[in-house]
Amino acid sequence: LYKACVFGNPVSQSKSPFIHEEFAKQFDIKFAYSKASPEIEAFTSAANEFLADPDVLGANITVPFKEQAYQYVDELSPHAQRAGAVNTFVKRDERIIGDNTDGIGLIQDLLRNKVKLKGARVLLIGAGGAAKGALPALIDAQVASVHIYNRTVERARDLLLNLSEDGDCQLSVYEDEENFDLIINATSLSLQEKVPSLPDFIYGESVVCYDMVYLNKPTSFLRHAKKAGCKVCIDGLGMLVGQAAQSFYLWFGKMPDVEPVLVKLRKALQ
Ligand code: ATR
Q: Structural domains in the chain?
């Protein structure tokens, strides 16, 4: 029996146990994936205790523990380093490696939806943890440019300062540019039924809009983009399954099929 869990607070809403059980079934693997919800200051002791079990392969880490997880690990993968956050622990020879699969999950989902990334002009909305994870992954996917829009402009600037090494992709803070190919909402605004303060003309017919949030109905951001003319609107459920698939791969060396799990999850949401 293999074990893993997701650390979060709150964590009751997490779909990760369902997703990983489905993945494990695909390979006939016995995998017990649980939820752990320690108090904020008890994260380290909870992680120590869980990871001490020899059956445990690792864990996922979600809000609000991703920065603590970054500090906790013995070693960081390049992805975790660049994202500044850890969402996956992998146990290797009694050492804990911190990785980050969020960015890959996003890219996989965009590609699954046939979104062309190479050479794309991207508007990234937000400058928190979610945007931080997305930015290096977009650069690796060879987009032409990323403009960052954030309510607090200084945070957008800080995000770019930390990534100044990335050669070919043009990175800048959004001013009043237009003609984007892809607009990604990396804020949690849709959870409050709000939309970012941006002009409607950016949501052209040929623009793809992606909201990292998912709900049991189209999110406020996607509804707004559609009303303003945008034809392709995608929510973050596929990214959730995609990042889980990448974590599963890190633990078992096997890449699960995302599609059937996504279909089941979408059905269960309705
Ligand atoms: P996460 O790790 O989920 O990205 P975060 O670090 O708190 O969470 O970042 C949340 C993002 O949503 C930020 O970009 C934040 O903008 P600020 O940097 O200006 O705070 C954005 N956000 C949250 N609530 C918002 C609101 N009401 N209006 C505009 N932006 C908001």
A: 2-100 (3.40.50.10860), 104-237 (3.40.50.720)
